[in-house]
Amino acid sequence: MDFFTAMEISASGLGAERVRMNLIASNLANARTTRTADGGPYRRLDPVFQAVPVAARFAEMANERGAQAASLVEVPQIRQDNAPPQQVYDPTHPDADANGFVSLPNVNVVEEMVNLITASRAYEAGVTVVQTLKGMARSALSIG
Fold first, then answer.
1. 91 part of a folded domain
2. Which residues pair with 13 in a beta bridge?
3. Which one, of 36, 49, 40, 37, lies nearest residue 115 by Cα?
């Protein structure tokens, strides 16, 4: 695998984790939004990650073990979570139904924070890979 392909693979992972962190931030920002343009409470969003093989770039290594394992990460779609909204009794809320219950978003703040920490750590790992690749390239240039 050449240097630029390794950088492209790392960059695709960084981009996917950035999308994930942005969606988590949106989920957290809307954790109490009871009314959206579509009507009803906000629904949490999740990215869908997809591995896209880069085997076509490694045609010369097609018979070598591990060549098929190299993949880019793409986010082909963003899905709404179909979990039911949380029902909270608050008859004074403007969006309360006839029984006094308010439909709040299906966002669990603790779960979102755990997801944010996980995405942040994955992003940090990707940055470490990019820094290592840059160091290797710098060392290779200083040899010549």
1. no
2. none
3. 49
Judge whether 95 lies within some domain.
no
CA angle at residue 1 from 77 to 143, to 5 degrees? Answer: 130
What domain range is 54 assigned to?
A: 3-31+45-80+107-143
Please calculate the CA angle 50-53-56 and round it to the nearest 5 degrees. 150
23 with 122: CB under 8 angstroms?
A: no
Question: What local confidence, expressed as pLDDT, does residue 81 receive?
Answer: 94
Give tens-digit pLDDT for 102-125: 999 999 999 999 999 999 999 999
Residue 102 structure tokens:
């308010």
Cβ(50)–Cβ(73) under 8 Å? yes
**Dihedral sign of CA atoms 81, 116, 120, 26 in order:** positive
Higher pLDDT, 76 or 55: 76
Confirm whether 75 is domain-assigned. yes
Can you tell me which residue has the tokens 């392909």?
5
Number of domains in the chain: 1
Q: Are 48 and 73 in contact (CB under 8 A)?
A: no
Q: Is residue 102 part of a domain?
A: no
**Is the CB of residue 103 less than 8 Å from the CB of residue 34?**
yes
